[in-house]
């Protein structure tokens, strides 16, 4: 994920809290350091209050416990994208605003299922 972010920064990042290779909260910490305006939605099957508070304290845009309603999740992602676009527009002059290019990065089979 971090290597993909070096090539192109998406409008929103959705990450599980438990992943192989890097913990979702550690990823959140690095994303907040390197891309502070990128909204990050943290999702988890192991929902507890401490994890939610920790995610918010580290800068998560939202915390999404599994199982989640797909329509509510899409609404949340749209809200995060709107937030991201608003932040970008505040930082750029009108001629610098890029054309929208929707693309989803997610290689895990579970993430591919969410994107369908």
UniProtKB/TrEMBL annotation:
Q: Which residues carry this modification: 4-aspartylphosphate?
A: 16
- Transcription as UniProt keyword: yes
What InterPro entries does the annotation carry? Answer: Bact_response_regulator (IPR050595), CheY-like_superfamily (IPR011006), Sig_transdc_resp-reg_receiver (IPR001789)
**Superkingdom assignment:** Bacteria
Which parts pass through the membrane? none
Q: Where is this region: Disordered?
A: 84-105
Key words, A-Z: Phosphoprotein, Transcription, Transcription regulation, Two-component regulatory system
Report the residue ranges that make up the Response regulatory domain in this protein. 1-81
One of its GO biological process terms is: phosphorelay signal transduction system
Instruction: Name the PANTHER family on file.
Output: STRESS RESPONSE REGULATOR PROTEIN 1, TWO-COMPONENT RESPONSE REGULATOR-RELATED
Q: What is this protein called?
A: Response regulator
Phylogenetic classification of the source organism: Bacteria, Pseudomonadati, Pseudomonadota, Gammaproteobacteria, Vibrionales
